[in-house]
Amino acid sequence: MIDVSGKQISLRTASAEGMVLCGEETIDRIKNNTLPKGNLFDVAKASGLLAAKNTSQMIPHCHPVSIDSLDISFELIDGGKTSEEKGLGVLISVEGKSIGRTGIEMEVLSSVSVCALTIYDLLKPVDKNMEIASIRLTKKTGGRTDKKLSVRPGIKAAILVCSDSTAAGTREDKSGLIIKEMLEKYKVDIVDYHVLPDDEQEIHDKLKHWVNDDVEFIFTTGGTGLGPRDNTVNAVKSLIERDAEGIAEAMRSYGMMRTPLAMLSRSVAGAIGNSLVVTLPGSSNGARESLEAILPGVFHARKMLLGGGH
After folding, report:
1. Count of domains for the chain
2. Are residues 232 and 290 in the same domain?
3. Which of 98, 141, 150, 257 is the most buried (most CB within 10 A)?
């Protein structure tokens, strides 16, 4: 199974539909409730609920998900408004919601599929020419692929590595390169990548320079702990004009799900002019996990900084 531990927990929704095509006489029998196997829709709905709940047991690579809502509905298409497109039959629609790390699209598709099979089974004594058709996903929201979180092309960012040992050449930078790689996956333009010692004034001056150059996003790594030379947070705090405490809370909360040491992070985030500055831990895992917690949603900050809405 694919590792989804790096995904954010968010509201996921999905909708799917499918058709069971049948004859006009069959539709009349459904309407008049004269089927030999009894009520059609109650049984089909129950089967659809069971199918959604058991999707991960039927499809090997599907992760178990918490289904927070599942709505199954049926419509008889009998010569009305959509009959030319869909044909005569039963239209099955399923909508689902889940708060988790992976989507719920396979659950709603499974539900539609098993509803269709159940309807087929219940109608086969009276209709030998049925067809199951057009099972498809109609909508999906949530997660990193959500259109609401789409990333504008051409975003500019700078990375500042704050480390005495890296600046002295005795330690190889890893966290800065991880940040660069993760940002580039979102087509972010890295306009500068700089290494400085843990000197508050030097960090302060470099940040001011990037803000004056209107670098949209500035990510620092290192200097967020409790050590005597952890000066990054102090330098950033002295410049921040508007705090973005939710960003730091999201990073620590995400980190705490992985290690209790995340509570020792002093990471901060906020606006300096029209630039957003985010301080990330200096460890490779800390930098990676902190970015996982806030990407791509953090890029929406630029629109707000320029006076746009949510």
Report:
1. 2
2. yes
3. 98
Give, rounded to a whole angstrom, the gap between the first and last alpha carbons of the chain: 35
Q: Is residue 205 among the annotated active site residues?
A: no
Continuous H helices in the chain: 24-32, 41-53, 55-58, 83-86, 105-123, 164-168, 175-184, 200-212, 232-237, 245-256, 284-294, 301-305
Give 225-238 pLDDT, tens digit per residue: 999 999 999 999 99
Q: Are residues 139 and 284 in the same domain?
A: no
CB-based contacts of 78, cutoff 8 Å, min separation 6 = 24, 27, 88
What predicted TM-score, i.e. pTM, was given to this entire model?
A: 0.73
Q: What is the pLDDT at residue 158?
A: 98
Residue 309 has pLDDT above 80, yes or no: no
DSSP 134: E
Give the domain extent around 174.
150-305
If asked whether residues 139 and 158 sit together in one domain, one would say no
| Co-location of 124 and 155 in the same domain | no
**Which CATH number is 43's domain given?**
3.30.70.640
Binning the chain into helix, strand and coil, the percentages to the nearest 5 are 40, 25, 35
**Percent of the chain scoring above 70 in pLDDT:** 95
Assign 310 to helix, strand or coil. Answer: coil
| Residue 119 placed within a domain | yes
Instruction: Kindly report the CATH number assigned to the domain that includes residue 210.
Output: 3.40.980.10
Catalytic residue among 71, 121, 213, 243: 121
Q: Which residues contact 162 (CB under 8 A, 6 or more apart)?
A: 196, 197, 198, 203, 220, 221, 222, 223, 231, 232, 282
Statement: residue 82 has pLDDT above 50: no
Asked which of 53-57, 75-79, 219-223 is least confident by mean pLDDT, the reply is 75-79
